[in-house]
Amino acid sequence: MGIHTIHRSISFTSIGLAFVAILGGCDSPGPSIQGNSAELLTTQIEAAEQRVEPDAVIPASPETLALTDGVVSWSVYDEENVRIAGVDADDRVIVELQIQVDHDDSGALLGVAVQMNAPDSGTLTFDASGQLRESTLGGAQGRLFAALVADIQAVEGGAEVQRRWLDCAAATLQLGLVCGAAAATCLTTFGVGCALGGAECVAAVLDWQCACNITSC
Question: What angle do CA 176, 160, 56 make, to 5 degrees?
């Protein structure tokens, strides 16, 4: 198994891409479109999201397939924050999580949020020292983080990445690995085992920011 790095995505919002698509349609009149305008906009947004290629695709193992109820691969998007989508055999996103970084006006790190968007929503946050602030994640979501961590570990050593993005890609994977493991540990130990994992997650955030030129270092 290998990890296939495609390229570092240019960050456009889905709504922005849909807006460009709408403007493009004004240049050459076409047949009138019947139907609800909200449904049309939703379709355009979904189409715009599909055109954004992931920075890396990680195959899931047969063992983790059962833990996630059908994720066959993980798509990693390195944008302003790191977003990871678990995709099933029909190319549908059935698991989605984000690692969000909070800064003050000077750029100093305030904290890290590990957020689960699907199948259920919830957030686990660490402060700048790695101490657990709060968690609205449930214990069942720990298996999804555990599955992601296992799949990253399985390919990390033999990752094939474009040379230009080697450091950034490695740091992005490490961020998903370390913060995912911290979340899984917090959930499985009911918060008791959070301290070390939280500190490691914060350290991985700092490395990611440095490697991907988000902050000077």
Answer: 45
Q: Are residues 146 and 86 in contact, defined by beta-carbon separation less than 8 angstroms? A: no
- For 124-155, the pLDDT digits (tens) are 999 999 999 999 988 788 899 999 999 988 87
DSSP H helices in the chain: 14-24, 37-51, 62-68, 142-156, 166-188, 194-211
Helices 142-156, 166-188: crossing angle, 10 deg rounding: 150
Residue 31 preceded by cis peptide, ω within 30 = no
Of 136, 49, 122, which Cα lies nearest the Cα of 87? 49
DSSP 3-state percent helix, strand, coil across the chain (nearest 5) = 45, 25, 35
Average pLDDT, the chain: 75
CA dist., res. 127 & res. 14, Å (int): 30
Other C-beta atoms within 10 Å of 6: how many? Answer: 15
User: What 3-state class would DSSP assign to 95?
Assistant: strand
Q: From CA 130, how far away is CA 28, in angstroms rounded?
A: 54
What confidence category does residue 169 fall into, taking pLDDT thresholds of 50, 70 and 90?
A: confident
Contact 74, 60 (CB under 8 A): yes
Query: CB-hemisphere CA count at 13 Å for 83?
Result: 17
